[in-house]
Specification:
Elements (H helix, E strand, L loop, with lengths): L1 E7 L5 H11 L7 E5 H4 L2 H10 L3 E4 L1 H6 L7 H7 L4 H10 L4 E8 L5 E7 L3
Parallel strand pairs: 1-2, 2-3
Antiparallel strand pairs: 1-5, 4-5
Length: about 120
């Protein structure tokens, strides 16, 4: 299973998510999208999911906090208690034993991040 994890600000657009995903180089081979539970129901994420025909995994805060991330964002640490929401969401959704194949990449407008994880789930 290949999962794209996303972190994004309230100002992000579907284009912001697309930019971040494009930066990972894995946009055409996804089984699932993942993000923080409160972001999973945002119109931006729902529209992006529909546009790509890919379901969203909603990741609870405690699970985001439990994931060990490769990169560290001060903002993510302060707001979400994880080094990278994108990396943590991708790893959590991909299941036990998942590994990052692309660490957090940032959209050109700097409003969204995306990371790609692969897992057995």
């Amino acid at each position: 299973m290949i999962v794209a994890g996303f972190g994004f600000t309230s100002s992000a657009s579907a284009d912001s998510l697309a930019q971040a995903l494009h930066a990972t180089g894995h946009g055409d081979r996804l089984d699932q999208l993942a993000t923080a539970a409160d972001k999973a129901v945002s119109s931006v994420m729902l529209d992006f999911s529909r546009e790509h025909g890919t379901p969203i995994a909603s990741i609870e805060p405690s699970l985001l906090e439990a994931m060990q991330t490769k990169t560290q964002s001060l903002t993510s640490q302060q707001m979400r208690r994880t080094g990278s929401v994108a990396e943590a969401a991708a790893l959590a959704a991909a299941g036990p034993g998942a590994r990052l194949i692309t660490p957090r990449q940032i959209s050109a407008d700097r409003l969204a991040t995306c990371a790609i994880a692969i897992g057995e789930t």
